[in-house]
C-alpha cells in the first residue's frame, strides 16, 4: 500500500472540503423549502411563516400549513364538508412522514374529527403504530383532545342529494345487480361477469384544479430536516370504507432526509398500486434529477392506465423541485423557497402529449420549466463530457430555455461514500453562472466516475463560451 505524505493528504482534504462547501452553499440558497400541490398559497404561506419567520420545526410548519387548508376547505376540495360518500358522510385521511427515521403517522376513514393532520401527528408522536382507521381512529383522536363534530355541511348534503336524484351517478360499483350504471343500490354480485371487463367498466376519475380532494406538502428546513404530509376527504361518492392513496406511505407521500421527498394527488385507487412517491424518491437515490423522477413515476402509471389522471411533486434534499402530471391540462402548485415569498408555480402541460421516451437522463434549465421545455430542449444543444473529466462519456443535455450567455460551468460532486471522489451511481450537478450573477442548477446522472483524484478535481472546473 503506497504511503501518502502528510502534505499531500492535507492538500487533498482541502480540495475536498472546498468542494463540499461549494455544494453546501449552492444547496442552502434553495432552503428552506415549502412545496405543496395546487394553488393553495394561503396554506403555503402559513407553513412558510411557521418555518422561516417563527423558526419552528419543519414538522410544525407542515402541520400548521395543512391544517390551514383543512380549516379553510381550500376551494371546497380539502377537509370537512366535501366529497360525501354513498351515505352522505364526509370522512378524512391524512399522513405525516418523518424523513430522518422513516417514522410515520396516519389516519384513514376518520369520522367526525375535523383535524385530520393533527390526528396523524398524534399517531406519529404518541403511538408505536403507523396507521389508525375508522371509528377507532376517531376515538383515539378524541382521547388526544380533539373535538368530535359533524363533517357534513349544507353544501355537502346538497351535493349528496343531487347525486341520489341522479340515480347515484357516477359511482364506483362494477359487475353487480341491479345495474349500477342505471340506478342506486343496494347491490349484489353479478354471477356471470367477465374478468376482462373490469378495466373497461372502471369509472374515469377526472382530476382538475376544482375537482380533486387532496393537499400534499413537502417541508425542508434550513438544516435539511424533511417532512412530507397529506390530507384529503377522498373521492366523491366513494363506497363507505374506501381508503385512497393519501394515507399510504410511498403512495400519497414519502420522505427521506438522505435524498428528498415526493407527494401525489389524483386517482388514489390507481396511484396506490404503483407507489409513485416512493418510486420518485428511489429515483433520486439512484442519482436521477427531480424532473426525471417525477415524470418517470407518472409514466409508469400511464403505461397501464391510459385514462389515468394525477400529478406528482418531487423535491431533493438540496431544494431542487419538479412536477409532472398525466391526464390534466394543467397542474398548479405553490412554492416558498430560500428567502422568497410564496408564489404559484407554473401550470404544467400534459406530458402524454409529448414523446417522453427521449427524456431519459436529460435535464432542464429550471425547476419551473414546462413539459414542452423538457421535451424540446433535449436535442437542442448537447455537451458531451470528456473522458478526462468523468472517466466515461455521458451526455448532458442543456435545454433551450438557457438563452443567456453561459460564463462558467462548475461541476459540484455529491458523494454518499466514505471516499469523497468515489461515485458508482452518484449524482453530478452543474451550476450555471450567468453574466448578471444569477444562477440556475440542472442535474445529470453521473455514472462511471470512480477513483477521481486531486488532479481530476481540479479539471472539473472549466470554462465554456
Topology diagram in text:
Layout: H1 6-28, E1 33-37, H2 41-53, H3 58-72, E2 92-98, E3 104-110, H4 116-126, E4 131-133, H5 134-143, H6 154-165, E5 176-177, E6 188-189, H7 198-201, E7 214-220, E8 226-232, E9 253-256, E10 260-266, H8 268-271, H9 276-285, H10 290-304, E11 310-316, E12 321-326, E13 333-337, E14 343-344, H11 371-376, E15 381-384, H12 387-390, E16 395-398, E17 406-414, E18 426-434, E19 439-446, H13 454-459, E20 461-463
Parallel strand pairs: 3-4
Antiparallel strand pairs: 1-7, 1-13, 2-3, 2-8, 5-6, 7-8, 9-10, 10-11, 11-12, 13-14, 15-16, 17-18, 17-20, 18-19
Helix pairs in contact: 2-3, 3-4, 9-10
Can you give a write-up of this model?
This protein has a domain at 33-152 and 206-349: 4-Layer Sandwich (Glutamine Phosphoribosylpyrophosphate, subunit 1, domain 1). The chain has 13 helices and 20 strands. It has helices at 6-28, 41-53, 58-72, 116-126, 134-143, 154-165, 198-201, 268-271, 276-285, 290-304, 371-376, 387-390, 454-459, and strands spanning 33-37, 92-98, 104-110, 131-133, 176-177, 188-189, 214-220, 226-232, 253-256, 260-266, 310-316, 321-326, 333-337, 343-344, 381-384, 395-398, 406-414, 426-434, 439-446, 461-463. The strands form 5 sheets. An 8-stranded mixed beta sheet has the order 4-3-2-8-7-1-13-14. It has a 4-stranded antiparallel beta sheet with strand order 9-10-11-12, covered by helices on one side. A 4-stranded antiparallel beta sheet has the order 19-18-17-20. A hairpin with a 5-residue loop joins strand 13 (333-337) and strand 14. Helix 2 (41-53) packs antiparallel against helix 3 (58-72) and helix 3 (58-72) packs antiparallel against helix 4. It is globular and about 60 Å long.
Amino acid at each position: 500500500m503506497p504511503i501518502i505524505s502528510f502534505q499531500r493528504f492535507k492538500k487533498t482534504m482541502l480540495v475536498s472540503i472546498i468542494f463540499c462547501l461549494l455544494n453546501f452553499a449552492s444547496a442552502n440558497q434553495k432552503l428552506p423549502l415549502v412545496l405543496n400541490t395546487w394553488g393553495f398559497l394561503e396554506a403555503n404561506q402559513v407553513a412558510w411563516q411557521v418555518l422561516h419567520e417563527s423558526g419552528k420545526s419543519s414538522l410544525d410548519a407542515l402541520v400548521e400549513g395543512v391544517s390551514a387548508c383543512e380549516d379553510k376547505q381550500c376551494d371546497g376540495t380539502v377537509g370537512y364538508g366535501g366529497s360525501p360518500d354513498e351515505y352522505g358522510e364526509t370522512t378524512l385521511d391524512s399522513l405525516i412522514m418523518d424523513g430522518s427515521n422513516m417514522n410515520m403517522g396516519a389516519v384513514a376513514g376518520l369520522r367526525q374529527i375535523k383535524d385530520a393532520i393533527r390526528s396523524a401527528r398524534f399517531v406519529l408522536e404518541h403511538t408505536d403504530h403507523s396507521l389508525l382507521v375508522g371509528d377507532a381512529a376517531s376515538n383515539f383522536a378524541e382521547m388526544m383532545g380533539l373535538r368530535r363534530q359533524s363533517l357534513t355541511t349544507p353544501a355537502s348534503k346538497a351535493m349528496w342529494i343531487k347525486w341520489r336524484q341522479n340515480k347515484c351517478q357516477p359511482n364506483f360499483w362494477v359487475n353487480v345487480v341491479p345495474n349500477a350504471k342505471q340506478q342506486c343500490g343496494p347491490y349484489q354480485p353479478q354471477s356471470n361477469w367477465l374478468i376482462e371487463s373490469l378495466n373497461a367498466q372502471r369509472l374515469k376519475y377526472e382530476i382538475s384544479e376544482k375537482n380533486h380532494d387532496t393537499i400534499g406538502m413537502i417541508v425542508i428546513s434550513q438544516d435539511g430536516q424533511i417532512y412530507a404530509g397529506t390530507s384529503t376527504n377522498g373521492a366523491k361518492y366513494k363506497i363507505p370504507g374506501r381508503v385512497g392513496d393519501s394515507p399510504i406511505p410511498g403512495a400519497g407521500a414519502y420522505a427521506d432526509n438522505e435524498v428528498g421527498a415526493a407527494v401525489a394527488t389524483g386517482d388514489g385507487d390507481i396511484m396506490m398500486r404503483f407507489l409513485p412517491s416512493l418510486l420518485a424518491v428511489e429515483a433520486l437515490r439512484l442519482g436521477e434529477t427531480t424532473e426525471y423522477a417525477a415524470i418517470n413515476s407518472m409514466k409508469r402509471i400511464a403505461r397501464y392506465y391510459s385514462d389515468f389522471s394525477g400529478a406528482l411533486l418531487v423535491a431533493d434534499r438540496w431544494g431542487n423541485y419538479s412536477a409532472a402530471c398525466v391526464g390534466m391540462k394543467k397542474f398548479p402548485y405553490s412554492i416558498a423557497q430560500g428567502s422568497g415569498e410564496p408564489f404559484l408555480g407554473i401550470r404544467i402541460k400534459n406530458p402524454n402529449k409529448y414523446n417522453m421516451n427521449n427524456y431519459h437522463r436529460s435535464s432542464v434549465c429550471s425547476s419551473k420549466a414546462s413539459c414542452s421545455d423538457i421535451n424540446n430542449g433535449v436535442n437542442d444543444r448537447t455537451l458531451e463530457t470528456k473522458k478526462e473529466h468523468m472517466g466515461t462519456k455521458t451526455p448532458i443535455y442543456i435545454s433551450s430555455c438557457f438563452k443567456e450567455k453561459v460564463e462558467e460551468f462548475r461541476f459540484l460532486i455529491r458523494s454518499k461514500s466514505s471516499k469523497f471522489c468515489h461515485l458508482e451511481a452518484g449524482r453530478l450537478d452543474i451550476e450555471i453562472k450567468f453574466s448578471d450573477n444569477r444562477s440556475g442548477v440542472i442535474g445529470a446522472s453521473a455514472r462511471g466516475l470512480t477513483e477521481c483524484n486531486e488532479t481530476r478535481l481540479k479539471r472539473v472546473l472549466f470554462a465554456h463560451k
